[in-house]
Design brief:
heterodimer; A: mainly alpha; B: alpha+beta; TATA-Binding Protein; five-stranded antiparallel sheet; 18 strands; rod-shaped
């Protein structure tokens, strides 16, 4: 079966999973949650197969490289990493609520990758600068980091939504009552950010090592490098404000959202600036 | 404490802002700003160095400020336990009836020892206390991370002071021993020379470049000390410098492979570039190459020669595609004798082919700061793992006898994740319970 066909199905599966998570949230019936998780797992497995197929095809075309080499492939991998990290967290916390906010981001990434007119889904050959074993470790760690930050962003959104209604004792809304407890969300934000921070750190470092071999300098102040450093600093500030000032809850949620904005700019916004990472430009 | 907080806020915000404005200045709309500030130098500006120094100083000051409190935390005596720690512990309490306390004590002790190794204990009038801990060194994980940042900054500073970056363009077959410094317009004389034996560029079917490859020889004191193939992502090291394949291009000079016949018999073959001279022993003449053109007036490659002999001094053109030109314009040679490649009789010249030579663009770097930066990177990952994944857990067990009833209470403190600690306590409860009932 054609891997692009699988990927477009996966896009719809993620959307369906999101809808089911929404059902679960509104009706409170566990059945919908189980169905949603099942779809998310099915989508993840199908996507994994599609990525492996794409990898294999690139060998048949005589290029032979991991499917992480252009904007389309990175988008697809981003969605894959988001779902993976989300499902691990769901499995560990047994809470199916966050899915409502995280799975649609994966769906949007997939949809954007396949619909956006300026993104080509062709398998392209690797230019000499990308022909390196560091490509895989650099891209995988960075995107695992991005995905963990995405989960933190989803939790941050729920936190703010719930927090807004907290003072509203007179009419406790059923809908928000079903959201996880604020303390749980706070822990989840912190945990996913620590995970993302480690991944981002390793991602920046593998990038540095690669740059050391490819460009002759471990740090060139290329816009993407600079912005990844800014993102790193934003999350470092977040962690410091938690450790030193004891910030919790709302402020963490807001910082998680600011951090995610930086992640998005590092990933997509920077492509509009001139720089060494230009091969991600569509 | 507040001062420390301010320090930390102050530590992170200025470099962050600066970096951000720098990044913003890199946008294409502000190209003029870029030119004005010479953006590539911004990160090497004195302002930037001052900020880096401030960042490092603040890091050091904050770390020192926090050290006494941390040391106190590290050295906290195991007893007495934090006040009220054993209150409200329904789940973490085991109550047995009709057992000897002297038998229960060793069971508790061995369970704790099995899990935590070294433990300390104290007997009080209230009962018996045990204390176990794990991951105390993780309190200093943050210091490992901060130290790693300082090491990296030090490495970067050493690199920018003692390091060197330069570029060399070498034509195929030539050797060069002078490099252009990347920063500024200076030249740097190498104490060896680099020869490019061959440069190859390969393309995929769709025209995307596939490989850039330079075969290099490093020559020191007139001897080839090392030969190597340089590829993108595969630098070569020679004599404290690392060489990178950075660019390539066509040399402005083109060469023509020229052959001539002498009265119909095969004469000779030469590779000629503009400005070259050659001897024609048959005619006791000397030739000068005035021009070599790859495609003149869209009628293909041509060279202009001047041949000086004792009798005469002749200039004429040699076209590669002379046959086609004559076919289009049959009376050309009579009208324009200068286009006749056989003007210097009895020799007739012709161009075999035109050759363009590539030059390879090498980037060479000497950066003594790299080992420090690498060390810093390793330390940072190690430190982050300690900070995030290892926690300082302390456990107190209190064994108390009231008449026939013996109660064992377990309580703990953790500097990070209390859920994980509770899991450990639950597990310990289960184990002790099993051992007692066994």
């Amino acid at each position: 079966m054609n891997h692009t066909l699988i990927l477009s199905w996966v896009t719809f599966v993620y959307f369906a999973s999101f809808v089911l998570y929404l059902f679960r949230l509104i009706t409170g019936k566990e059945f919908w949650g189980r169905a949603a998780s099942f779809l998310a797992w099915a989508g993840l497995i199908a996507q994994t197969i599609a990525l492996i197929l794409r990898w294999e095809i690139s060998y048949d075309l005589g290029m032979g490289h991991v499917p992480l080499a252009n904007l389309y492939e990175s988008m697809v991998f981003f969605a894959w990493a988001i779902i993976l990290i989300y499902l691990i967290i769901e499995w560990r916390t047994k809470s199916k609520i966050i899915g409502v906010f995280v799975v649609p981001i994966a769906f949007l990434a997939m949809a954007y990758a396949s619909i956006a007119p300026d993104i080509s889904n062709r398998i392209e050959p690797l230019i000499p600068a990308l022909q390196s074993n560091w490509l895989t470790s650099h891209v995988v760690t960075c995107f695992m980091g991005y995905a963990a930050f995405t989960v933190a962003f989803g939790c941050g959104l729920i936190y703010l939504l719930k927090n807004k209604e907290k003072g509203n004792v007179e009419k406790p809304s059923d809908f928000l009552g079903k959201l996880p407890a604020l303390a749980t969300l706070d822990t989840l934000i912190y945990q996913s950010i620590s995970l993302g921070f480690i991944f981002l750190t390793i991602g920046i470092m593998t990038g540095s090592i690669w740059a050391h071999y490819a460009w002759g300098s471990y740090w060139s102040w290329d816009p993407k490098e600079t912005w990844s450093l800014i993102t790193w600093l934003v999350y470092a500030i977040l962690l410091h404000s938690r450790y030193i000032r004891g910030w919790r809850g709302k402020r963490m949620a807001i910082l998680a959202i600011i951090g995610f904005a930086c992640v998005l700019f590092t990933y997509l916004g920077v492509n509009y600036l001139p720089g060494l990472h230009s091969y991600l430009r569509a | 404490m507040l001062i420390v907080l301010l320090f930390i806020a102050g530590t992170f915000i200025p470099p962050h802002d600066v970096v951000q404005t720098f990044a913003n200045q890199l946008s294409p709309t502000t190209a003029k700003v870029i030119l004005f500030f010479r953006f590539s130098d911004l990160y090497h500006s004195s302002l930037f160095y001052i900020l880096m120094t401030l960042l490092s100083l603040n890091l050091i000051i904050c770390s020192i400020n926090r050290l006494p409190a941390l040391w106190k935390q590290y050295k906290t005596p195991h007893f007495p336990e934090p006040a009220g720690i054993f209150d409200n512990l329904p789940q973490s309490r085991i109550i047995t009836v009709g057992k000897e306390i002297s038998k229960i004590k060793p069971i508790v002790e061995s369970c704790l020892k099995k899990k935590y190794g070294h433990i300390s204990k104290i007997d009080e009038r209230r009962g018996y206390f045990f204390y176990a801990q794990r991951g105390r060194f993780s309190l200093f994980g943050v210091y490992i991370v901060h130290l790693s940042i300082l090491i990296m900054v030090a490495g970067a500073i050493i690199g920018s002071i003692f390091g060197l970056e330069a570029d060399i363009n070498i034509k195929e077959g030539e050797s060069v021993n002078v490099a252009n410094l990347t920063k500024g317009n200076g030249l740097y004389k190498l104490d060896f020379s680099v020869r490019c034996d061959k440069f190859v560029v390969e393309f995929y079917e769709d025209g995307t470049p596939k490989t850039y490859r330079s075969d290099l020889s490093f020559i020191k004191n007139g001897q080839v000390e090392r030969r190597g193939t340089l590829l993108v992502n595969h630098p070569l090291t020679f004599d404290e410098f690392r060489f990178y394949q950075s660019t390539y291009g066509l040399a402005p000079e083109i060469k023509a492979i020229v052959t001539y016949t002498n009265a119909g018999k095969k004469g000779g073959s030469m590779t000629l570039a503009a400005g070259d001279t050659f001897d024609l022993p048959e005619s006791k003449a000397r030739g000068f190459v005035l021009r070599v053109e790859e495609n003149i007036m869209h009628i293909g490659p041509a060279i202009k020669l001047k041949i000086v002999s004792q009798k005469k001094d002749i200039q004429f053109w040699v076209f590669q595609q002379l046959d086609q030109i004559i076919a289009m314009n049959p009376s050309l040679l009579t009208k324009m004798p200068m286009f006749n490649p056989g003007l210097f009789q009895p020799l007739v010249f012709s161009i075999n082919r035109i050759e363009q030579t590539y030059y390879t663009g090498l980037h060479l770097v000497r950066d003594p700061g790299v080992p420090l930066v690498a060390l810093g990177g390793l330390l940072m990952v190690a430190g982050l793992i300690v900070v995030f994944f290892i926690q300082y857990q302390r456990l107190w067990v209190f064994v108390e006898q009231e008449d026939a009833k013996i109660s064992i209470s377990i309580a703990g403190r953790s500097n990070r994740n209390n859920q994980q600690l509770q899991k450990k306590i639950d597990y310990l409860c289960k184990r002790i319970n099993e051992e007692i009932n066994a």
